[in-house]
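User: My advisor, Dr. K., asked me to get a structural model of this assembly before our group meeting. I'm new to this, so sorry if the format is off. These are the inputs:
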Amino acid sequence: MRTMATWTTSATLALRADATTRVADIDARAKPGFHGRKSDGKQLLGERGEVLAALQEKLYAGGRSGDHRSILLVLQGMDTAGKGGMVRHVIGMVDPQGVSHTAFGVPTDEEKRHPFLWRIEKALPAAGQIGVFDRSHYEDVLVVRVHDLVPQEVWEQRYDEINEFEKRVVESGTTIVKVAMFVSLDEQKARLAERLEREDKYWKYNPADVTERSYWPKYQEAYQAVLDRTDTELAPWYVVPCDRKWFAHLAVTELLIDALEKFDLSWPPPDFDVEVEKKRLAQA
Ligand code: AMP
Ligand code: MG
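Assistant: The format is fine. Below is the predicted structure of the whole assembly, which you can bring to the meeting.
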């Protein structure tokens, strides 16, 4: 049986950032546009996952046959927002052959010797791929801004540099789906506490994450600036409340389906004569 749960407003419309988005007012427990419970959401995720996988296969097939287009999913959010889980639960539903995944940490010595977009450019998805960024070039105006890792006049310029860079990427055939993942301060505390309670979660715990909590207002300010200055028609931001993981997974699945549907993909035509090949095979 199909679920009764529905989007009353499409995810793309309900989650799209706009000039009125105030980071400080985001309700991380909300499920904008979606009418349904966790059990509904989980069932729907399975159904929509099949749609996503079918579209991704077409994208991949096209990429193997000369279609240069690709998707770039940018996951940006505070620690514990659920970036890793998003990759496992959403990207995990598609064929890994067609995925290129990059997690961006503190820049290496080599990366530090280059402009901030150098490592980003190198990780862009090839034709037919869904590229996934777990953190991204936005760290260079988030953690970098919050902790004054470069002078203000340097990070100030980066918003424009990012917009120019993304424009170039989009014009080259890559649709960028930018997802800002918001977890509440309370939920973050609960998720960090869980990491301290379970042997299988210690590896995710980083004592520095607790220190970062005291910078929450500065991070909110930095996220606000990101939305204010880098939300463009070509590369829009989507605001995804993440206290309910099932909602976040369902939401990003929908955003990816929408982006892929806009490609209006078709199966690559054969570059051989099908009838001739059938005869040859029959005789082989
Ligand atoms: P995690 O995602 O938990 O593996 O942590 C990666 C860490 O790398 C986070 O603390 C980020 O803030 C940090 N990071 C990522 N990019 C940058 C950057 N450009 N400059 C400084 N720190 C960064
Ligand atoms: Mg971490």
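One thing worth pointing out at the meeting: Residues 79, 206, 209 surround magnesium ion (ligand 2) (CB under 6 Å).

User: Perfect, thanks a lot.
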